[in-house]
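Notebook B, p. 112. Complex prediction, attempt 2.
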Amino acid sequence: MRLVKWTRGTGIRIAALTLVLVMAVVSLLGVFVYSLVDEALRDRVRSRIAEESNRLVLDHDPLNIERLMTAIKQRTREETLRRFAYRLTLQNGQHLAGDTWLEGSSAGWHWQELDKGMDQSISDGHVIIFTQALDPGLMLSIGRDAHWIADVEEELRALFLWALALAVSAALLISLLIRHLIARRLAAVTNTARAIMYGKLTQRIPTTGAGDDFDRIANTLNEMLDRTRALMESLTQVTDDIAHDLRTPLGRLRQKLEQVRDDATLPNRHAVALEQAVCEADGLLGTFTAMLRIAQIDSGARRSDFRPVDVTECARSVCEAYELSAEDTGHKVVGTIGSGVKLSGDRDLLVQMLANLVENAITHTPSGTTIQLSVRQTATGIEVFVADDGPGVPAGEREKIFQRFYRAEASRTTPGTGLGLSLVAAIAKLHGGTITAADNKPGLRVSTLFPTDPHA
Amino acid sequence: MKILVIEDDRDTGAYIKKGLEEAGHVVDLAATGRDGLFLAAGETYDVIVADRRLPGLDGLSIVKTIRGAGVKTPVIFLTTMTGVGDRVAGLEAGADDYLIKPFAFAELLARIHALTRRPPMSAAETVLRVADLEMDLIARKVQRAAREIDLQPREFRLLEFLMRNAGKTVTRTMLLEGVWDFHFDPKTNIVETHISRLRGKVDRGFDCELIETVRGAGYCIRAPR
């Protein structure tokens, strides 16, 4: 897993490409230089042989075999440290004079490797040979030591290997450095994005001040984030202003109704009507509060105050709080709650989420329904569900229950704002959870899965 | 009691002032944060009721300032905000309680009363008493007329909350916050059912009822007059 991720990085791909390129260039250069040097060295030997051949042949022109043989014999005897090897034969290979070991059956240039035991007075490795046909059916071969060429070539090869090793390690080092630098700069971007996702809205991508490409991208992204934040802030401001400007007169309306209602001289039927009016105002204000609360939760700003919350403790207190009132309506609330399951979050909101789910189940199921509240730690995260064995919700309507102001056909007449489950969904989302409604066979099962935070 | 109300909305200010005066309190009304801070720092009040949002100097800054100056007068915040997070911010700034507008007047009154005579809990006080009802906080036992009453943990906390505020009205919201730590408005009558269960254990079968329902406000536990 980790290795796959590592090899997928852009940095490592660039590094590998650099490495391959450097190796190719160095190899090509090596082959080129090698063949150039090799050719030049052989040329030198060849020209020496050509000079000697000219001397030998032209000196004895017109050709006299006797004299040529004498000259060759003389030359092969002459020096203890000879520079050339000679051999004169007939066309059919019959030896006439010179070094018997020297090859030379056909005309042209040859490369002969010397075996041990051969006359090694001129070389202990290789000789280059020039063989030419002389007029009356003769073959003359002249050889010269080329052992040192092989030595030079060997040195060249070693040098080349060293150069390759050096270049490869340098390339490897540089590309790893580049990979590291790219990874570091990208990590800064990723970390910032993640921090913003988790509600730290003021976080910005750090720049190095070098003014490079990364800085330019970072600056552009930061500008974008600033603008988005400014937009969000003005939106929040507008929402807050609406909250203030609409709720205040509504509040005053409620105050006045309350003042009149509490007037002891009022006939009873008026008092009842006024009480109903106060309730209506409260309902209106409740809807309003719920809407604003959802908007505020959706903005994600609450994440900055997240603390470890024991979800099992929240669930137990919700379970216990509703047990009694559920009994009054003939419902049964059962908790299957583990212990010590912790989540980074907002306790007040998590309690409200669980309470809303339980209340929703109590409100929308008939007497005799059992409601189960469960919290458990699974391999992938924390699963919280509220399930009932009531009539359930038809499959087509199930996903709609989280929509704002959605009221299922069957519950149009039940009191409520139609915002309870929207609030639940918003709270679940704020905590990184996914919420689903499913068939409990029978009944409805609303479950939320909070995946284990990889950063915790 | 002498109460300072800092509220920029004239109608709401007048409504609170009138209500508190009818309840027998002396009320100073400040319409701006600056006036409010001036009065709060200079005079001696039993309670300060401050709007969280004021032109110029807001409620949060006022509380921080007077707490910094060593004024310990209890403060109740009023707010139109939707509540999420504000409660904690307000309490951290040094406020003692928090009320979301609009509110039933009885709610404000109950909270003011609960704050003002909240006695500093002395360590020695381990038994709460109302008439012949006795609660031992250490042994976690309750008895009435020398007869032991068996209570569930939550019923115990509910009764404790009532008895700590004996003689004063506590509202449904105050009970939800104080006993259940619920900071939202449940649609189900959690408080009512628990009170009724508690009554069944504490009052039923005894010669007089200690837990009263205060119409339109909440509940109160007190010795019969």
